[in-house]
Every structure is written in C-alpha cells, then in structure tokens.
Amino acid sequence: MRVPALLGGDRIPRHAAGRPLARRPVEPRHGDAGRRHAREVAVLADRTDVAEEVARLTSHVAQWRGALAEGGSIGRRLDFLAQEMGREVNTIASKALDAEISLQVVTIKAELEKIREQVQNIE
Fold first, then answer.
1. Is the pLDDT of residue 108 over 70?
2. What is the mean pLDDT of the chain?
3. What is the dihedral of CA 50, 51, 53, 59, to 10 degrees?
C-alpha cells in the first residue's frame, strides 16, 4: 500500500490543520497533549487505510471472473459488480493522500464506465 510508504517516506502527509504527522510510531508522552497527538495519528491512519476497500475490490474482480466463466444470463450481476467496484474505487479516492493514487483512480473509473456501458448490452 502507498499510504504506509508515505508515512515513512520523504513526503510527510499533513493533518487538516497543516501540522506534519510523525514519521515513526508515536510513543505516548506524559500528559494530555501526548495522548491527544497519538490519538490524532491513530485516527488519521484509520481514515486513510484502504486495505478493506482493496480487499473488497479484489473480491468483486474475482466474482466478476467467476460470473464470466459460468456464462448464462449474467448481465445484471456484472452490472451490479461494476457498480460495487465503482463504490470501492470512490472510497479509495476519498481516502487517498497521494496524487499517484488519485491519478490511478481516475483511470480505473474511466475503464469502469466503459465496462458498465458494455454490460448494458449483456442479458
């Protein structure tokens, strides 16, 4: 994943207030400020974690391939899966802190739109 790489790399993501985030795990310091900082880092890490979305997207792709292998009347199923893939990609885009991920999302969304147009012709 790119997000963990960003946290340890040269570029440091910034909190909404513009403060840089820590490059290494935050050791809780004494007092409220240290706990609050550790909590902020944990919340940001949770909000930017796309592992669950990637896992679901991978599952949808596997289901798509399975439907194609089965054959038969699969148009609605493929349309539904394409819609679900679009939702996962949109969620990844909203969590992305990285321009490269954002560019890849645009490409994926364009390809998904082409796929959805083609699926409309399948019964």
1. yes
2. 81
3. 160
Whether the predicted model's global pTM rises above the 0.70 cut? no
Q: Which domain holds residue 60?
A: 51-119
Give the C-alpha separation, 44 to 80, whole Å. Answer: 31
Kindly list the distances between the CA atom of residue 75 and the CA atoms of 58, 67, 80, 81, in Å, as whole numbers in the listed order: 20, 9, 9, 10
Same domain as 58, residue 36:
no
pLDDT, tens digit, 9 for 90 and up, residues 52-94: 999 999 999 999 999 999 989 999 999 999 999 999 999 999 9
| DSSP category for residue 71 | -
Integer CA distances (angstroms), 97 to 20, 68, 80, 113, in order = 13, 34, 28, 24
Domain count, the chain: 2
The DSSP annotation for 29-56 comes to PSSHHHHHHHHHHHHHHHHH--HHHHHH
